[in-house]
Amino acid sequence: MIKVEITYEGKGLKSLLIKGHANSGQYGKDLVCAGVSCVSIGALNALEEVDDYEIEVEEGRIYCKFPEKLSEHDETVMEVMILQLKTIKESYPGFIDIKERK
Questions:
Q1: Are 43 and 81 in contact, with CB atoms under 8 Å apart?
Q2: What's the pTM value of the predicted model, to 2 decimals?
Q3: Core-most of 2, 60, 73, 88, by most CB within 10 Å?
C-alpha cells in the first residue's frame, strides 16, 4: 500500500511523505504506482521555489519539507497534487492511504 502523510503547521503545508508500493498490478504495470508517481513528481517539477525546499526522491519514497511560507504558485501546485492523490484514493481505495496531520 502507498502511504501518504501530509503535515500542516498552522494554515501552511509543512511536509509531505509518500512511501511504499501499491502492488495493484505486476511490477512495471501497476497503474496506482504509476499514477501516484506521475502526479507527485510532476507537481514537484512544477514548483518555482524548489531551491528553498528539502526534497528527497528515491525508490518507493518521496519526501518534501517546506519552508514556513510557500509562494502562492507553489501552494496551488501542492493543493492540486493533494487533490489528485485523493482522487486516486477514491478510485483505488485499497491501494493508497492518505493521512493529514495538523
A1: yes
A2: 0.92
A3: 2
For residue 42, the 8-state DSSP code is H
Q: Which single residue is written with the C-alpha cell 521555489? A: 49
Q: Residue 5 and residue 79: Cα distance in Å, rounded?
A: 14
Which one of 33, 38, 64, 73 is the catalytic residue? 33
Task: Mark 9-46 as b/e (b = at least 16 C-beta within 10 Å).
Answer: eeeebbbbbbebebebeeeeebebbebbeebbeebbee
Selected catalytic residue, list 21, 38, 64, 73: 21
Annotated active-site residue 64? The verdict is no
- CA 76 – CA 2 distance, rounded (Å): 23
The per-residue pLDDT for range 32-87, each reduced to its tens digit, is 999 999 999 999 999 998 888 999 999 889 999 998 889 999 999 999 999 999 99
- Is 38 among the catalytic positions? no
Give the helix ranges, DSSP H, for the chain.
Answer: 31-46, 72-91
